[in-house]
Structures are given as C-alpha cells and as structure tokens.
Amino acid sequence: MYELDVAVTHAINSIAGTNAALDFLMIWVSAVGVPLIVLAVAGQWLRRTDRQQTRHVLLAAGFSFLLGLALNQLILLLVHRMRPYDAGVTHLLIAHSADPSFPSDHATATIAIAAAFLLHGMRRLGFWFLVAALLVTVSRVYIGTHYVSDVLGGALTGIVAALLVRALYREGTRADRLITSIL
User: Fold this and answer.
1) Second label for 6, Cα 20 to 30 Å away, from 47, 75, 121, 175?
2) C-alpha span between 116 and 70 (Å, rounded)
3) DSSP letters of 81-137?
C-alpha cells in the first residue's frame, strides 16, 4: 500500500516545477484556500433565505471544522509520519514544516466544512465547498507537503467530525435556538 501511496503522490508532485503559473496557483491555493473557505462560510451568515436553518448549518460547519482539527491533534499523539519531501518522495515548493505529515489539517478543515453543508441539506453550497476543498487537498500534494494518504486521512477525519456534529448538534433544540439567536 505504501508503494501505491508513494507512486500517486510522486505522480501528482512530478508536475511541480514544470509550469510557473500552475506552481503559483497551487502555492496560492494551499496558502489561502482554508481562510477563503472560512470567509465564504462566514459570508453566508447574511443570507436572507431560511435564516434560522442557514445559521444552524454555519455553526455546524464551524463546529465540524474545530472538532476535526481537535481530532487531528489526538491522532498526532499516536502517529508521527515523516513528510514526503523528507523521505525524498516529493519536490517541495514552499518552506519546510516542522509538523508531522499525517493527517493533513488542510484536508480535515475544508472537507469538514463541505461535509457539514452536505449533511445538513445545503447541497448546492456543499457541492461548491467540496470542489474548493478538493482543490486545496490536491494543492497540498502538488506542492510536496503531503502524501495522498495524508489528505485522505485528513478528509476522513473531517467527515467523521461532521457526522459527529450532525448527530450531537440538532437543529431547533434549545441550545441551537440560543446559540443562533446570540450570534
């Protein structure tokens, strides 16, 4: 399985350094993708249509984002995977990172948001957040910071977080009404 992971990671990263415009785009997406997605989520707060349900979904997306990153911190206590550039698998286009490679926080954060929207019935927005999340995750492999399995693991963590939030944070409950009315 490791050989397949290395082969796919290398195939995606092997394009890096061959096209300056594509390199710039992927570095930019990797750097600003998560903040832009978070801003896009926050911007939905002002929507006029079905305001209560929209705000519930926005909070669920935020909780999923935070829970996913918290789960990653727990995983990091058990797993210390070397970055692919340190193993000679990829060519790195940005500065080195001191963090372990698995799981990808970028993948966790962006997929958690997309999954929250999809699980809560906002399919159109969820689809566009998923497209953006996939672009961010591919950029992380392209620029050489992650193996494909790192972003897949991060995506799984994001989905698990969104599922947990969906199960625990129910729309229309007293807590939901209180939180959405305060904010």
Assistant:
1) 75
2) 16
3) PPPTTTTTSS---S----S-SSS-HHHHHHHHHHHHHHHTT-HHHHHHHHHHHHHHH
Report how far residue 150's alpha carbon sits from residue 141's, in angstroms, rounded to the nearest whole number: 9
Q: pTM score, two decimals?
A: 0.91
Q: Which amino acid is at 144?
A: G
Q: Which residues contact 129 (CB under 8 A, 6 or more apart)?
A: 37, 40, 41, 110, 113, 114, 117
From the centroid of its chain, how far is CA 140? 11
What distances in angstroms separate CA 113 from CA 6, 76, 135, one per listed residue? 28, 21, 14
Query: 52-59 — which CB contacts under 8 Å span 24+ positions?
Result: 52/180, 53/120, 53/121, 53/171, 54/122, 55/180, 55/183, 56/120, 56/171, 56/172, 56/176, 56/180, 57/116, 57/117, 57/120, 57/121, 57/122, 59/169, 59/176, 59/179, 59/180, 59/183
For 103-154, what is each residue's pLDDT tens digit? Answer: 999 999 999 999 999 999 889 999 999 999 999 999 999 999 999 999 999 9
Kindly report, residue by residue over 63-92, the tens digit of the pLDDT: 999 999 999 999 999 998 999 998 888 988
Burial bucket for residue 66 (CB in 10 Å: 0-12, 13-18, 19+): middle
